[in-house]
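Demo today. Your pick:
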Amino acid sequence: MAVATTESPISNHRELPNNLTLLGIFAMRDALRTTAYHSVKTAKEAGVHVVMITGDAKETAQAIGSDVGLLSDDKWATVITSTELAEKSDNELKQMLPHLYVVARAYPNDKSRLVKLAKELGWVVGMTGDGVNDAPAVKNADVGFAMGSGTEITKESSDIVVLDDNFSSITKAMLYGRTLFKSIRKFLIFQLTVNISAILVAFFGPFFGFDLPLTMTQLLWINIIMDTLAGLAFAGEAA
């Protein structure tokens, strides 16, 4: 925005006089959250493909995408508008999706279309939103995130409500979910290994001349010792 002054009277507010003295130029912008860059970086390191879909102009969206690190690691990073998106077929968009990071001037149907195509590629799709126009895409995603300050219809359509409106909360949720899944998987593998080994010993023992290879008391001790030590080991293991 430019600020200028003049000594001539301004009779027509739609036309500026010629003898203006420029005082200065200033610009305004919404500051990014301090956690935005780190949160996006964490998500990308975890193998999550982050796409920003916004109604802002292409230049503004591209600048924000660069500031948060969306466009830094991929030399084929693509920024398109809703008009360019509409001109492409579904197959073309599927080929573009791995390198698509920013969609500007987006309409609600663009969000739903991208969610649909990503699911057809076999991706697990998460969608965030806060407005009424985000509700269809949030509902159609595998996991829908609604902002705590968003509309009620979006919250009802979502699976998870992010109360602090912070993207870092989503990355933390992914961390906790993956940690829990890995812990359960490791414990199940361990238990299956111990129990299947005991079953095989008890089953094949008689074929080698052992009527009762393991007594009930011995099996109980095996379970007590292995479960206790395994629980202590898993409790002290890094996530």
Summary: DSSP finds nine helices and eight strands in the chain. The mean pLDDT is 88. Residues 36-173 form a domain with the Rossmann fold fold (CATH 3.40.50.1000). Strands lie at 2-5, 21-25, 52-53, 78-81, 100-104, 126-129, 143-147, 160-162.
